[in-house]
Amino acid sequence: MLAKIEQLLQEVKGLTAQNPEELEALRIKYLSKKGAINALMADFRNVPAEQKKEVGMKLNELKNLAQERIATLKEAFDNQDNGAAELDLTRTAYPVNLGTRHPLTIVRNEIIDIFSRMGFTIADGPEVEDDWHVFSSMNFAEDHPARDMQDTFFIESHPDIILRTHTSSVQSRVMEVSQPPIRVICPGRVYRNEAISYRAHCFFHQVEGLYIDKNVSFTDLKQVLLQFAQEMFGPETKIRLRPSYFPFTEPSAEMDISCDICGGEGCPFCKYTGWVEILGCGMVDPAVLEANGIDSKVYTGYAFGMGVERITNLKYKVKDLRMFSENDTRFLEEFESAN
Ligand code: DAH
């Protein structure tokens, strides 16, 4: 009996299994009711009394070792299983944070949305433009200061090719290929040779508007801009138009809205005037219509142009223009809820 126990002890010490099925077979072989150890237990009563102590201890040792060994092997298989279940090989290696729309995109889309509902369609044009579309067709005199090196980026070796300084160039692009009625807005990026500071940048964004038809009047312009201002800044918003000058409009005006911080009372934001400027506008100069192939005796039109950064600053109180192009995610994430 002792020799049999000794043999099983050696076997059990070296037990291994390749898979859970093999392990189960071993458990049945050694530890089940009909297993080898139980069979020895059953024989135990036949052991002579003087050997009972020694054989009993050995038998217990065998049983404990077998249980321990099989439990250890089982644990190894269990861990392997869990590992496989937790490891999802289709997952991306890094957590993916959802991006947010850029504040300028949010505001540009809102501007587009408001004018779309008033029947305007979107027109597009190139950022690298020629002098004709940016200046000459827009009635800029040959010696107009805006053509100066100070403002305009020229493409080296091509004095006629420039980065557009305003989206008014798209007005010309639209007029030269279509006849009234024309009702478009032109969102886009523009460039100016300015020193970068909190209030100026070498590129920014504008939305241009153009409406040409028979009998278009300044009243139409004012009504559309009032509608825009109240949708953008709230139904209490007031507007005022101040006479101004642009080469491509006559008469020209600049539009202010009532300061939405103090409601027109006067505060540091509006420099105690109660008003903040938001855009330029006017009736399209007949010379511009003619230069672009539209009969100024039959048609009249209005135009307006606004800076998207300016509107965004007013709406979200961003004080430093440079924030828009620095891609600091702490700034960009602040607009998460506006998306
Ligand atoms: N192009 C002007 C600028 O860049 C903005 C502007 C003013 C556009 C009046 C217009 C307009 O269409 O009528 O400052």
From TrEMBL:
Cofactor binding mode and count: Binds 2 magnesium ions per tetramer.
Residue ranges occupied by any Aminoacyl-transfer RNA synthetases class-II family profile domain in the UniProt entry: 107-314
UniProt key word Cytoplasm: yes
GO annotation, cellular component aspect: cytoplasm
Co-factor(s): Mg(2+)
Keywords: Aminoacyl-tRNA synthetase, ATP-binding, Cytoplasm, Ligase, Magnesium, Metal-binding, Nucleotide-binding, Protein biosynthesis
One Pfam assignment: Phe_tRNA-synt_N
NCBIfam families: pheS (TIGR00468)
Name of the protein this chain belongs to: Phenylalanine--tRNA ligase alpha subunit
Record lineage: Bacteria, Pseudomonadati, Bacteroidota, Bacteroidia, Bacteroidales
GN (gene name): pheS
